[in-house]
Amino acid sequence: KSSMSQSFVKAQLWQTFHPLSIILYFLLLGIMAAVYTHPVYIGWLFLLTAAGIVSMGAGKQWISYMRFSLVMCFFIVLLNIVFSRNGKTILWIGPSLPIIGDVIISQEAFLYGLNMAFKLSLILSIFCFYESVMPADKSFVFFSRFTPKSALSLILTSLMVPQLKRRLEEISVVMQVRGALVNDRNLWQAVRSRYPFWKVLLLSALEDSWQTAEALSARGFGVGKRSSFIQHRWQRKDTLLLACLIFSFAGFMVSVIQKKGFLNFYPILDPGWNSSEGLRLGFIFSGLFSILIFSELWKRWPYLRSII
Questions:
Q1: What is the dihedral of CA 107, 109, 114, 115, to 10 degrees?
Q2: Taking burial as the number of CB atoms within 10 A of a residue's CB, which of 11, 83, 255, 289 is the most buried?
Q3: Sign, Cα dihedral of 194, 200, 205, 208
Q4: pTM tops 0.70, yes or no
Q5: Partners of 270 in beta bridges
């Protein structure tokens, strides 16, 4: 109970932000993660995202994301060092394989694969951070004001897989109680033995879709202007967040114009780093990190909550 209450207190500030300000925050994070290629810049973004996830109490969920990311990262590095032929610093020359040809592993290809794997972990971490800050129902309420049908389709699609998984588990328990046996001696027999499960699952999914349509029709969905029970108001803290985002976005645009934050891997690795990069990093990420610092101060100082 204490851990749940602490998690709620930590998440309380983020949940009081306007959905638009939260979306702009994560939109800027996503753009930076997609544009920057220098590992130092990506590392700072990763550190920022990790600090936000820990402050939200979503560490266990983040670990599951990282486990999936490790598998994907392994294949990214492996495929890049096997198929890439652009690097000039040769580390190892292997045997000739069918279709692939000569296996040549270069330093540039290996480092490029590691960097792309690091960027993939960062993007998945940003999604985990966004999921912990912005619940699905809050996103649906916000986007449904502008595109109600598209928002409904998106939320139903995102819920389809976990619902089907849960319904399949229920069907499997019921079928096994009734004496249904699953024979896995070969592929054909496995498909035949599971045919009743998939048939019931399909009928159940069609019945659920019919019930959803009836519920929407009973509530007058699509008839007239949509009403909203929850009203989101722009507050002082949203203005503060927007100001920090504008500050960081200005630094980001300056770095892009000056072509900073990028690393040339091919044909020869060129770090492109100088003594002024530290000041540029501080200028870009100070606005983003200040929101995390403000959230901790807001949690610890009740007086700050009363004035903002």
A1: 110
A2: 255
A3: negative
A4: yes
A5: 264
